[in-house]
């Protein structure tokens, strides 16, 4: 076999492994209490650091909680957030999801809530977006490029733009972390419920006031089995060339 055909075979094998990982990466909420080795958790953070970061600013930080006392202190906060979610947004099944399947998901959420103190590890991605460095000359060029309507739109949507800019610097790394966890046989799920009580979470974890948190990711060895994810068909969500 020549070098080109060997490389093609290797790439194909890598692709199959990656797609298999993504297609079986369920949100796994039932975790065994056994600890996850520090070196394994560092592998997850390394995968996150490899993720894209807007402008290559790399202003992320990761809080990794494994101490039992700290986790026990977070458990009441987690419960309050989950209860608030289940009483509002999470009260009804999403459109297209049958009640039985949603009931199983809620049961897993409640299990995680009730056993949160036993979570082996919790990872909290944080980001501090640096102050922009913009000069008058740049602002003039900015206004010329966007035009009056564009400038007005940006002025009216600045809060959303800032949130998306920060999120785009963090969430690719979080997805890498989840993929790495699945590849290593670890269960994980990404949540943002903690944002309902973010100040209390930050206080409990000593996170600086000017540092924003973007997720809370419980990690551990799964009690259940990985399996195929259930998602909308590609044909239902793709728009070619235009809407």
Task: Walk me through what this model shows.
By secondary structure, the protein is α+β, with helices and mostly antiparallel strands. It is 53% helix and 9% strand. The chain has eight helices and five strands; from the N terminus they run ααβααβααβαββα. Strands 1, 2, 3, 4 and 5 form a five-stranded antiparallel sheet that branches. Residues 26-221 form the Nitroreductase domain.
Number of helices: 8
* Helix and strand run: HHEHHEHHEHEEH
Give the biggest sheet.
Answer: 5 strands, antiparallel
Number of strands: 5
**N-to-C span:** 45 Å
The level of helicity is 40-55%
SSE class: alpha+beta
Report the mean per-residue pLDDT as an integer: 91
Spans of at least 5 consecutive residues with low confidence: none
Rough outline: globular
Strand content: 5-15%
Any idea what the radius of gyration is? 21 Å
InterPro entries: Nitroreductase, Nitroreductase-like, Nitroreductase/BluB
Protein name: Nitroreductase family protein
Organism: Streptomyces brevispora
Domain Nitroreductase: 26-221
